[in-house]
């Protein structure tokens, strides 16, 4: 059974965005877009989250934070980079403190373009992420099975 | 024999009923906010998902405590639906929450610790009123056994209106609803990360969720005792009370823990005690 697709919980982190994209992310939760229709919930806790939504680029101060948040999320998990800044550093790209997009620090699965990204695009990005999430879950299951079998084989040979 | 059937039925059906109630709750909440809301079965999807996820364990002790929490909640509910001794049930129920608090203290996360502290404060806030409710039910029905309370032909609510109102007040704390959702709260309301459940993830969080379903069904059963002389009125009254709780959840903002403590004790001290005092005066032949 694939419950994961029906209940993706989101962690939203503002790296160094101008707040434009953040407002659009929060707009998804309003009655107009109401992402809870799809079981999507905005949690504040990386340990409960399935999807990490990041806006803004990486700078020297948030590098460790982004990495830490990503590592605290239980598998399977996906990362959605929202806006031009999260993809490449965007308009702040040339700043002395900006390293670039989110993929400089952690693997990104979906890039949502735009400055700012529109709520419709963000929802579309999340739906794409759900497919990848499901793939990762199947793979994780497969890996666990392989490991279990290997352990079994080793147990029998000794 | 009847008792055993009641207990078994509770253990099997309560998670289903509890999940459905949670689903209806979320749907009504969404409608009150002008949203469409999640599907009715969303709580089941959520818990199913949690069991699919990787279980990140900080210390293995936490899993043990959460399991004990689930077992004791289920046990107190089963005893209740078996018609057992209400005082024993209340104590088993309290013990269950102590396990949850211990589970949150087992890890070294400040968020989890704050949540645990607040859960203890909640425990202090609602416990007096729960015990007074048990005492009140005893005074009217002359028995601490739930089986006798259900069989009573006396309209208990007419004797215990104050106790009932006090119980409804602390029910808000117990259902983890605003303004008293201070230790952890439902879905979209965030506070101190996630309070007492911050460090639980995957199947452990799923167990906490299932325990909460058991707990809600048990509490609604407790509420029913006030109306047990007439099942139809009873069920309607319980439904109306729950709807009122959802309404309060949506129109109030989260209060501070001091307010939760004061409200719980005021409910017990004023509504509960005064009601019981008048009742005992009437019973000793005053009227
Ligand atoms: S992409 Fe545009 S709107 Fe979004 S954070 Fe960057 S500058 Fe702001």
Characterise the protein shown here:
The complex is a heterodimer of chains A (158) and B (287). Chain A has 158 residues and is of the alpha/beta class. Chain A is built from 4 helices and 7 strands. Chain A has a single domain, classed as 3-Layer(aba) Sandwich (Rossmann fold). In chain A, strands 2-1-3-5-7 form a 5-stranded parallel sheet, sandwiched between helices. In chain A, strands 4-6 form a two-stranded antiparallel sheet. Chain B has one domain. Chain B has helices at residues 2-32, 42-52, 60-81, 86-105, 110-141, 146-151, 156-159, 161-174, 202-224, 231-251, 257-286. Chain B starts with a helix and ends with a helix. The chains are: A alpha/beta (158), B mainly alpha (287). The A-B interface holds A 1-4, 6-7, 29, 31, 34, 36-39, 41-45, 47-48, 50, 72, 74-76, 137, 140 and B 26, 30, 33-39, 42, 45-46, 48-49, 51-56, 187-188, 190, 193-194, 197-202, 205. Bound molecules: iron/sulfur cluster. Iron/sulfur cluster is lined by residues 17-18, 20-21, 55-56, 83-85, 90-91, 115-116 of chain A.
């Amino acid at each position: 059974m694939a419950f994961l697709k029906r209940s993706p919980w989101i962690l939203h982190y503002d790296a160094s965005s101008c707040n434009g994209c953040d407002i659009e992310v929060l707009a998804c939760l309003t009655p107009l877009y109401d992402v809870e229709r799809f079981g999507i919930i905005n949690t504040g806790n990386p340990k409960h989250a399935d999807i990490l939504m990041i806006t803004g680029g990486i700078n020297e101060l948030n590098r460790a934070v982004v990495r830490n948040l990503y590592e605290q999320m239980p598998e399977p998990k996906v990362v959605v980079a929202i806006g031009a800044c999260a993809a490449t550093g965007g308009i702040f790209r040339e700043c002395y403190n900006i390293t670039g997009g989110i993929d400089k620090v952690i693997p990104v699965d979906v890039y949502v373009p735009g400055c700012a990204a529109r709520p419709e695009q963000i929802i579309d990005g999340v739906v794409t992420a759900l497919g990848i999430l499901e793939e990762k879950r199947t793979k994780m299951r497969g890996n666990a099975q392989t490991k279990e079998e290997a352990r079994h084989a080793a147990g029998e040979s000794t | 024999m009847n008792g055993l059937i009641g207990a078994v039925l509770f253990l099997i059906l309560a998670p289903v009923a509890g999940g459905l109630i949670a689903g209806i709750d979320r749907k009504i909440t969404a409608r009150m906010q002008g949203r469409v809301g999640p599907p009715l079965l969303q709580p089941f999807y959520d818990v199913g998902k949690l069991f699919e996820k990787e279980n990140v364990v900080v210390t293995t002790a936490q899993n043990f405590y959460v399991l004990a929490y689930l077992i004791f909640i289920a046990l107190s509910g089963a005893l209740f639906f078996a018609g057992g001794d209400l005082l024993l049930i209340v104590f088993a129920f309290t013990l269950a929450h102590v396990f949850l608090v211990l589970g949150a203290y087992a890890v070294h996360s400040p968020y989890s610790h704050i949540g645990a502290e607040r859960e203890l404060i909640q425990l202090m806030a609602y416990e007096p009123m729960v015990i007074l409710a048990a005492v009140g039910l005893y005074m009217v029905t002359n028995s601490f056994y739930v089986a006798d309370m259900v069989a009573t032909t006396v309209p208990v609510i007419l004797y215990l209106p104050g106790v009932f109102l006090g119980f409804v007040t602390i029910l808000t704390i117990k259902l983890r609803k605003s303004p008293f959702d201070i230790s952890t709260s439902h879905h979209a309301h965030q506070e101190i990360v996630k309070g007492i459940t911050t460090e639980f993830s995957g199947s452990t969080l799923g167990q906490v969720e299932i325990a909460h379903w058991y707990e809600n069904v048990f509490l609604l059963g407790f509420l029913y005792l006030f109306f047990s002389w007439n099942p139809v009125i009873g069920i309607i009254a319980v439904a109306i009370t729950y709807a009122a709780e959802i309404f309060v959840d949506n129109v109030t903002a989260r209060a501070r823990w001091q307010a939760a403590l004061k409200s719980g004790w005021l409910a017990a001290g004023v509504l509960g005690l005064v009601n019981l005092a008048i009742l005992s005066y009437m019973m000793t032949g005053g009227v």
